[in-house]
Amino acid sequence: MSSELMDSFCLLRLTVTLLALLNPCLTRLTPRVSFPMGSPGRRLTCFSSHDLSNTTTLLLSADGEKLYVGARDAVLLLDVGHKDTVLLRSKLDWSPSEKDLEECSMKGKKMADCPNFIRVLQFFNSTHMYVCGTFAFSPRCAYINSETLTMSLNTDEGRGRCPYDPYQRNTAIIVGEELYTGTVADYRGNRPVISRHLSEGSRVDLKLDDTLGWLEDPTFISSKFIPHEEKIYFFFSEVGREYNFVDKFIVSRVSQICMSDVGGQRTLQRRWTTFAKAQLLCQDGSELPYNVIQDIDLLPPAEGTSVDDILFYGIFTSQWAVNSGRSAVCSFTLTEIKSIFSGNYKVLNRDTLQWSARVQEKVANPGECGLHNASDNALRFVKENFLAEDSVRPAGRRLTLVSREHIYSHLTVQRVQAANKKLYTVLFLLTESGHLHKAVLLQQGSYIIEEVQVFKPPQPIRSLMLSIPKGMLYVGTSEGVVRIPTANCSYYWTCAQCVLSRDPFCGWDAASRACVEVSVTQTALGQDTDGGNVEEACNSVSVTHRTKFGPSKMPAISCPAGELVSVSLNDVVRLHCPAASQLSHQLWERPNSRLSSDLYLHLQDGSLSFVATPATLGHYLCLSTENGYRQTMAIYHVKQKSSPVAQTPTSYTRSHTRAQPTREGPKATESRPAVTKPSLAIRNTPVTTRQLDRNLTLWMKEYENLETKFRDGNPLLSACCPSYLKELVVVSVLLVLCLSLLITVTLYVLRQRWRRQTAPGMGTPSRSSDRRTPEEQESLRENEFGSKANGQVPSGGHASGLVCNGNLTDSTQNLPNTPF
Ligand SMILES: *[C@@H]1O[C@H](CO)[C@@H](O)[C@H](O)[C@H]1NC(C)=O
Ligand SMILES: *[C@@H]1O[C@H](CO)[C@@H](O)[C@H](O)[C@H]1NC(C)=O
Ligand SMILES: *[C@@H]1O[C@H](CO)[C@@H](O)[C@H](O)[C@H]1NC(C)=O
Ligand SMILES: *[C@@H]1O[C@H](CO)[C@@H](O)[C@H](O)[C@H]1NC(C)=O
Ligand SMILES: *[C@H]1O[C@H](CO)[C@@H](O)[C@H](O)[C@H]1NC(C)=O
């Protein structure tokens, strides 16, 4: 491809990216930081044991101290009240007998599917739980004591309460010592039913009338109890028969039943009289719906708001692979669900099995509670009209989040009070690939604060549970239970990082100079979840600090010291630039000049590569920009190796000698893996920012410690001290620039070198300005730079230079060899 074509291609890409920025739905949702498994910044606590597998259900005690785990052939009680460990308190073994297993395999089932997989685990009363398992394709249920895990002597038959087949999904909830379930109720798995068991007193057990196909091959997802409504809502997907023009079109549903239901007297005896269902539509106008629900969680109303302000957050995927996203999150309000259920219903023509919206005389209100004494006529009407005509649309008529890359499988949701007392909704989303995403919902769209790898696929994970009182998340996988705190604020080591994280859980405490959890402190914290504006948030809290440490502009922000790189002429030099986060953009600068692309290669990982020539010796700055905040990540001084020539004092070497008076020799030189012979260097593999990220942590911490030593004077430091680009201005300038370029770029223009690429703030190197006389310009620059630096280097310089060396050396050694 010619470079002209490349240029226009880049331009197009840039425009598209900018347009995407303006439309939150198109934005690529990149987690700001990513923690691979085993990262010290996000430690997982795991519980596993050799006889624990297929953890299918999790249940947490109200105080968050005890976690019950339903697994294969066992129920476990884990003590999760300790900060650092998860302890096994007791264990109930509950497996089928040899005879049961034999029968199971005689029936043609795989032996691996014959154990007892626990699929229902619910608190029954204050002392007991109710548990059901598949029990060798012959489901059983039992009461167990919540403290001792001892099991009742008699077990119940589990038909209709628990699936036979461990691969079939089900849902169950106990309310008022009555069990409500959605499951298949036969061995073959083709009789789905929503039913009530263990009905109290004279109340009868109820189920769906199965003659009419009230459910069409459903996959049950969840069931939720809404106390003030006295209703249970079931969430599932099924074949949408009303769309009979599409074969096997899956739709997601919400259905309801009233707890007061006792069935009809003649019509609908022992059947629900209050069952109604409606379509949940997670769709953006321009695309096919995300039609298959994967998980749903309930967000209770905020304090002081209406009880109907309950929100349901669901994950949806699409049956077809044509949408722009692989999965989406939609939220639905209880108010909307209620209004759809109180509206009109479709009518099923029994002969043709076609649904229509034909208006019938309304003899009853389907979905209404308290129909037990209604006339047969009314009950017959209810029996035939149970599919709401309208669909439940997402809150705000838009998708909450769309992920292009990830298939989310589980979610939980929490409302978090930020430092400014504002409430934010935080979603915890599990991807199929084993990553947990923490997303905060903002006015302008969703923002993924972090990504933590919690298991290695493939793991058919079954459970994600949030403990709000303890601030913990639990993930049940095939191999055990993983616990992870909802936040680790101390990972953010500067005010800037703390604010840029936009984590509503975390704020910068200027007094302790630490990023701390908002919930545990009363003092004013630096935080800006909405905007991530470092300047405002850090200045507002750093007043006390400033008075203590003198008039430095931004005390909470660290500046790296210069690092010496000794090279021989014609070496290929590679300077690394660690990324501050996955959302930051790195760019290289030489003081008072731009980097010509003829001499410099910008590598994918943000590092800079060039051949050491007299012209390329000198100082280099690596800057990182994120959300309009700019910071210097590294400063290098590339210098020719000690030789008679190099020792000739020039203004800049002199200045550097003063910075590193004693350590310029072997130590600095031997720890320079960035300098290699040409053939080797070019084969260096690009690395991902994830790795850099981790090592940067260590590295930046060191800087933080040294920060106080750089108070004044050094021009390098003043060059690095944070400059703030007004984000809005930059984006609009770029947009205007791009649009006007797009319009005016013609073939004629394309043939020319595209000069405007070097718009300020974009970091693209100029291609023409330095080309003619690099050497001259270089020496000019160095002189200029050197004279500025001369005699103003703080005494702490040399120590920090060495710290840089040490840590960077480690990382560079590791990076090419450990592809992520
Ligand atoms: C939080 O991050 C800090 C700094 O990276 C680390 O030392 C600490 O172990 C982390 N804590 C947890 C619970 O992950
Ligand atoms: C149980 O776990 C094993 C190992 O991960 C897996 O292969 C199997 O499919 C699981 N069984 C069920 C019923 O989920
Ligand atoms: C809870 O239910 C179990 C099983 O029915 C029963 O044995 C126990 O007495 C009940 N406990 C209370 C406190 O009612
Ligand atoms: C239904 O009617 C019967 C007698 O007609 C009455 O005893 C019962 O209380 C009524 N049930 C309800 C829930 O109103
Ligand atoms: C980061 O550096 C440490 C040594 O400081 C090294 O052990 C580790 O493997 C590096 N991590 C990566 C991801 O390269």
From TrEMBL:
Residues 768-785 have a biased composition (Basic and acidic residues). Its main location: membrane. One of its GO terms (molecular function) is chemorepellent activity. Residues 645-660, 806-820 have a biased composition (Polar residues). The keyword Disulfide bond applies. Residues 32-486 form the Sema domain. The lineage of its organism: Eukaryota, Metazoa, Chordata, Craniata, Vertebrata. This is Sema domain-containing protein. Pfam families: PSI (PF01437), Sema (PF01403), Sema4F_C (PF19428).
